[in-house]
Amino acid sequence: MLLESRKIHFKKTFLLAYPVIISQVGHVVVNITDSVLIGHLGPVKLAACSLGISVFAVLMVFGIGIAYGLTPHISREFGANNKDVCGKYLVNSLVINCITGIVVFLGIYALSTQMSKFGQAPEVVTEALPFLRIIGFSMVPLMLFLTFKQFAEGLNFTRQAMIITLIADGFNIFLTYGLINGVWGLPRMELKGAGIANLISRSLMAILMITYVLRSKNFKPYLHQAKVKFIEWKTSMELINYGIPMAFQYLFEVGAFALAALMMGMLGPNYQSAHQIAISIASATYMAASGIGAATSVRVGNALGEGNFKQLRRAGMTGYVMVLGFMGVMALVMILGRVSFPLFYMKNAEVLEIASGLMIIAAFFQLSDGTQVVGLGALRGMGDVKMPTLVTFVAYWIISIPLAYYLGFTLKMGGMGIWIALSLGLTISAVMLFWRFQKLSKKHIKLGIRN
Predict the structure, then answer these.
(1) Is the backbone of residue 268 left (phi > 0), alpha (psi -120 to 50) or beta?
(2) What mean pLDDT do residues 235-249 have?
């Protein structure tokens, strides 16, 4: 009976996770394609791409965290069969996310004016500025897309967002190639072209996702309160109280990696190019793991809404088992491909040697990376968002970042030292979040309470 129960949990989690995994990896494939295409233009161009993406990612993930505040509410109300309330959460989330998209764009623009003070090579900053400002504006359509995507996923509809993402990503790859190289009658715009393609494809994603949710019969029972008159302060604050801590969770982690990219840039364009190669490959596995984390969050939220706390714990543990198996395989793939994968980006011997070394470290932190992202998802589904935020802050900014500077510059370990420190931060975060889930899930079962 227990074996059957586990099989059911794996099946349900997998059916929710695989569309999210495919759509998440689709985004990364676009980033990898951009890096490969730009890498052939030389180390300076690729370093500029790395700098632009690193700065953009810091504020982008803050916006994503705000948008993710919708899903736990939807999945919980879905589990409790409160259909009308779902529409009210959607319309309030839409307002919050539109404002967030605009604010994040303004923040990115403000940061771009200060990039000359980041200790980067002047030629790299010159190339990165227009690229960063273009992709910064894409935050507005991205937040619109995420609003309706998170709504659909909270109701257990994940395949449609996957299809839309794949359509937009395929379009993005062809448009990026055309605009970077000036083919098919398009102007040669190099790095700027990649930014414009990104903006257009995200706008397409937003249009398609909004159209699907508003026109599909699947969502009509849930949209009765998706009206302007149901925009209210109380509901908005519920979403913000979830979204803000999640935004900081992502900000602390991605901010640490962005600061690491700046540290690599202080070592020179070749180190920054190697960092971009290794991190773009590692991000593919991370995004796949985040799909499992998202599915775990939804299933835990459904169980919480039903008041079934044993199912809640099993749903969480299923996510952990799945991600450990997947990331273990990915770690082996990274070790075997540490020399061949970077060759797709460029032929610069020094960059390839540095990237190959970083790939080994990336392979070792795969299990930690997967474990911590599922931990965040499981706790998010339980409504526990504040303590995980503190955990990520301590792991990355109290321990990992100071250690990265110490190993990289004081002990002169260079890029390897910086990445070792990042790996340690991921491991600390993973262990603490797993311990937190164990403690809270057992408490729910023992006391039979929701919080």
Answers:
(1) left
(2) 87
For the cut 90, the answer to whether the pLDDT of residue 329 exceeds it is yes
Any idea of the CA torsion for 430, 436, 442, 447, to the nearest 10 degrees? -160
Mean pLDDT confidence for 390-415:
93
Number of domains in the chain: 1
* pTM of structure: 0.77
Specify the residue for token string 């039979």: 448
Burial of residue 312 (number of CB atoms within 10 Å: 0-12, 13-18, 19+): buried
Domain encompassing residue 405: 2-447
| Amino acid found at 389 | T
pLDDT of residue 283: 80
Q: pLDDT value at position 308?
A: 84
